[in-house]
Write a structure and sequence with these properties.
The chain has about 120 residues and is mainly alpha-helical. Helix content is about 80%, strand content about 0%.
């Protein structure tokens, strides 16, 4: 019985954290995901295929996979919360699979996060 209550409590906390996601959270997760992708491409993969040392691919690849999924979840939550169009969501998804894409998407997010000043 206590286990079920603990699971419900944990799920409620997780959902609360998801609801509190904002553009800044998306930018942070996107930056980390982009950094992990570059580490995978430019450090771990050369170590594996040029120098025959595959150990980093295992750990950096797993970290990147977790960050990639986290980015997609946070992107979805923020797009829903901000009522952004499907184009913004798809732009984020495409950016997340391209090298340096998350950093370019971050520049767009930075513009979107700034308050619009009307003159």
């Amino acid at each position: 019985m206590a286990l079920c209550a603990n699971i419900r409590y944990t799920a409620a906390r997780f959902m609360g954290k998801l609801q509190s996601m904002n553009i800044q959270s998306l930018r942070v997760v996107g930056f980390l995901e982009g950094l992990s992708f570059l580490a995978l491409l430019f450090i771990a993969m050369p170590l594996k295929y040029i120098w025959g040392n595959p150990i980093l691919v295992k750990y950096v690849g797993m970290g990147h996979g977790v960050l990639f999924i986290a980015f997609l979840v946070v992107l979805f939550v923020v797009c829903e919360k901000q009522k952004w169009s499907i184009q913004v969501f798809l732009m984020g998804v495409i950016a997340s699979i391209l090298p340096f894409g998350p950093f370019i998407f971050d520049a767009k997010l930075k513009k979107m996060a700034q308050p619009q000043v009307k003159v």
